[in-house]
Amino acid sequence: MNLFTFTANFDSEESCRIHFKEQRDKIGIVCKCGGQEHFWIKSRWSYECKQCRSRISLRSGTIMQSSKLSFLTWYKTMFLMSATKKGFSSKEIQTQLGLKRYEPVWAMVHKIRKAMGNRDARYTLEGMVEMDEGYFTVESSEVEQDKGLRGRGAAGKQNVAIMAESTPLEDIKTGKKSRQAGYFKAKVLTSHAAEEINKTVRESIDEKSIVFTDKSTSYVDIADYVELHITEKSNKDTTKETLKWVHLAISNAKRNLLGNYHKIKGKYLQLYLNEFVYKLNRRYFGERLFDRLIIANITGL
Question: What is the pTM of this model?
Answer without folding.
Answer: 0.90
